[in-house]
């Protein structure tokens, strides 16, 4: 049972909200470099969406396509070149990278001022701490909060349950919810009886990498 | 009601455990600099405990006592001197500092390798992220986990509730509990009905800066 009587489960139309945001963006960002290595179908699809979104809002996209067998040194040299290019305000390196490349090493070479994914530990630390502000917010967590806000759902004081604790989505979204004054619980693969915890939630963020893991039986309030 | 029937509230003897740990420490740490500015009674009492604990375990303590009206520049110059001193492995600057000094600025001047309080955002970020390890753990949160561990209380899968979310105790202890695979909920001043959440907990860490805030009525399992 949810603790508040004004709750019902609602499906948020993320696509419509994303389109609204793109329409709102002016020419804030002069240039975004999107780096892809190799030919993974999923990565190509993500990258092509990012480039298309850039085009739609008049952000200049710098498309860096490198072959699957590019050396780590050559990839890092490219990152350094983008760090130095003043037309490039943000750098996204699409993950995963091929096995012969150390992802952590490559990501740590991105200048923190251009690390628009916000995954640098210094950035995550500032996101986590009261009274500090990160330079960038990781995009999916920020998107979750934006969806709630634009759907008129208040967060303060609500019981929010985050399912999953990845560095990329689950964990940073729990930080953002806590900063927004939710009572936050993080549920994960070691949690006992996660269903009962999820049933108590006012807001559920399912970020466990598996669609439909949280079913309507858990979110519909009787 | 707690979710597991094998739970009862127990009082942990922190003083006895601290003594055991001091007895265990050999001469691991060559030198700890403890810096105090001014004459605050509470700060002097904390610092004197730290220096006494150093003496007990043969850690060389570098005692830096500066007057209340020391300038920020002089304090920072002292921090730089300690950074450069190879006999000093750790630096503690006792907080709070006098109002004319910017704490964040002074703390950020401590070399990250000697920031034994572990409050640098880079350190907190590494503590927060999966697959990264911080250089140092903040002492009170680490102490809480040590108390649990030395009292034979397992954490994995347990419902842990942290009351309070300060940068110094509540928040980092929630990170440590999550890393130890607890299902962690952070309760704070904006939480609705915190009592009911606390009653469900297997482990409660009360870090709200007020003794006896969590009473026996909330932790005794019927």
Q: Based on Cα principal axes, name the global outline of chain A.
A: globular
Sheet with most strands of chain A: 3 strands, parallel
Tally of alpha and pi helices of chain A: 9
Largest inter-chain interface?
A-B, 40 and 39 residues
Oligomer: homodimer
The CATH superfamily of the largest domain in chain A turns out to be Leucine Dehydrogenase, chain A, domain 1
Q: How much helicity do the residues of chain A have? A: 25-40%
| Topology, number of strands of chain A | 6
Note the beta-strand portion of chain A.
5-15%
The Rg value of chain A, from CA coordinates, equals 19 Å
Count of the domains of chain A: 2
Sequence of strands across the biggest β-sheet of chain A = 2-1-3
* Element-level helix/strand string of chain A: HEHEHEHHHEHEHEH
Query: What integer is the average pLDDT of chain A?
Result: 87
The CATH class of the largest domain in chain A turns out to be Alpha Beta
Looking at the structure, the CATH topology of the largest domain in chain A is Rossmann fold
Word description of this protein:
- The structure is a homodimer of 222-residue chains.
- Helices cover 39% and strands 14% of the residues of chain A.
- Chain A contains nine helices and six strands.
- In chain A, helix 7 (170-179) links the parallel strand 4 (159-163) and strand 5.
- The A-B interface holds A 3-4, 104, 120-132, 156-159, 165-167, 171, 175, 178, 181, 183-188, 190-194, 196-197 and B 3-4, 120-132, 156-159, 165-167, 171, 175, 178, 181, 183-188, 190-194, 196-197.
- Strand 5 of chain A pairs antiparallel with strand 5 (183-187) of chain B, so a sheet runs across the interface.
């Amino acid at each position: 049972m949810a603790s508040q009587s004004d709750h019902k489960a609602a499906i948020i139309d993320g696509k419509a909200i994303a389109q609204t945001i793109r329409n709102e963006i002016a020419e804030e960002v002069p240039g975004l470099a999107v780096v892809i290595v190799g030919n993974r179908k999923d990565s190509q699809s993500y990258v092509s969406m990012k480039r298309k979104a850039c085009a739609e809002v008049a952000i200049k996209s710098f498309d860096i396509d490198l072959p699957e067998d590019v050396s780590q040194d050559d990839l890092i040299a490219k990152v350094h070149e983008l760090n130095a290019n003043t037309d490039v305000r943000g750098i996204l390196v699409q993950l995963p990278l091929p096995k012969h490349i150390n992802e952590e090493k490559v990501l740590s070479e991105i200048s923190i001022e251009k690390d628009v994914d916000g995954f640098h530990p210094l950035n995550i630390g500032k996101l986590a701490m009261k009274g500090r502000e990160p330079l960038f917010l990781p995009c999916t967590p920020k998107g979750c909060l934006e969806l709630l806000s634009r759907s008129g759902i208040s967060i303060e004081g609500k019981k929010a349950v985050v399912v999953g604790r990845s560095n990329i989505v689950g964990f940073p979204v729990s930080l953002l919810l806590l900063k927004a004054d939710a009572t936050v619980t993080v549920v994960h693969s070691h949690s006992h009886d996660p269903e009962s915890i999820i049933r108590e939630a006012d807001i559920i963020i399912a970020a466990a990498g598996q669609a439909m893991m949280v079913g309507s039986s858990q979110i519909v309030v009787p």
